[in-house]
Amino acid sequence: MAAARRRVSVGLGLAGAACAVLGVCLLLVGPLIIREQVVKNVRIDPNSISFSMWKDIPIPFYLSVHFFEVVNPKEVLQGAKPVLNQRGPYVYRELRYKTNITFHDNDTVSFLEYRKLFFQPDMSNGNEEEYIVVPNILMMGAAVMMENLPNFVKLLLSGALAGLKQEAFMNRTVGEIMWGYEDPLIDTINMLVPGLIPFKGKFGLFIELNNSNSGLFTVNTGVKNISRVHMVDSWNGLKKVNYWRSSECNMINGTAGELWPPFMSPTSLEFYSPDACRSMTLVYEQSGKFKDVPIYRFVAPKTLFANGTDYPPNEGFCPCMQSGIQNVSTCRLNAPMFISHPHFYNADPALVNAVEGLHPSKDQHALFLDVHPMTGIPMNCSIKLQLNLYIKQVSGIIQTGKIKPVVLPLLWFAESGSIEGSVLKQFYTNLVLIPSLLDYLQYIFLGLSVLLIISAAVTMVMSQEKCSLFWSSNKKSSDSNKANQATSAKKLPPVKGMVLQEARP
Prior knowledge:
Layout: H1 2-42, H2 51-55, E1 61-70, H3 73-77, E2 84-103, E3 108-119, E4 131-135, H4 137-145, H5 151-163, E5 169-173, H6 174-179, H7 184-192, E6 212-220, E7 232-235, E8 268-273, E9 278-290, E10 293-299, E11 325-327, E12 337-340, H8 349-353, H9 362-365, E13 368-372, E14 377-391, E15 406-418, H10 421-491
Antiparallel strand pairs: 1-2, 1-15, 2-3, 3-6, 4-5, 6-7, 8-9, 9-10, 10-13, 11-12, 12-14, 13-14, 14-15
Helix pairs in contact: 1-10, 5-7
């Protein structure tokens, strides 16, 4: 019986040692295995699992556009505060795909990414045939751009505008404002001031967005250095842009805005935006989960569109006005255009108070990016920007009336998308569930090893106690027998010698 217990104890000990070895191995090797799998699959390599997803993004993106209709255009011409009414959203399904993919010897790859937009009536609050009253963007923009030209030139333009029946505000359809409309004003301006508007044909705010690319990006593949994967090496062959007044503001930093290097820290992330003509930095706000997938949420800091007075590093983006708007005229044909957060969220209150109808809100107007920190893959995002036009009375151009200087919101848009469906399921299984199981297994094995080793020790002790009791019992029995024999011997009468005599007759 004792021998059997000893064998059980040895078996438990060996099993405990084996579990301990497995637990330690998983503890040490598990993270390395997971890291290797992440590195293998997030780098830009035709043999990686994620390459097809990188090439033809399967995530559904939507562009939602909200217009600001000017309710009182006649009063604004007389110097009244503009009253705005938000219209929309007008929602478009966005398809993205990459072409001209070329790998280079220096661990980089070049590509052109195209976007196609398809109107979604069922998701929209309105249709593209609806009319909206907005500023005459071409005319009012040209008027401000010509403010410092000789008076006779401005008078010539004013006469031409009258002949073309141009007014400060126009009533056009959503489709025309988005995708372009024919306007004889374009040819007239080009004739009077050659080069002022360097394009011909239609004019539309999003005419260059549909069926077009955002420039030639060259990014790092991460094959040699995973910490550099997706980081921009150049854009249109440039290491820096030349739109701004400082070297820092002209830098092309971060990624192309789709993916980031893996193993992120909760600090900040950067990307270059061709639409904003600059690099942008988002800051870490909080950790959380998106459909059970761990994420870091990054948001725009209040300094993103601050002026040079409030935030000196932004001085290079000036000439500036109030904080909360950025002058993009240098990369938008010198037109007096500004970008901001929707409804002037996080901007100088003076901008909000200059018009009526704005209601800035963090929930509705703040941009955010939810990124899985282990892989650098965005799980959920909504990038929101507002387009604004600076308008005012320009002497010599009577069409501008008595308009008071104001940064007038034209529209704001959100580009939103999230991983869902089969892509989300595959992502969760490979990058959340399996690593979690490995993580749990290492502690299960370690815990089991402790339990088994304790059980083995207890069994061994019990076996030894049984043996001790057995030998002790035998010894006591032997001693007892000897004692009994001695006692019996003492009770017998002493044996004395007797002489046997032969009886004689």
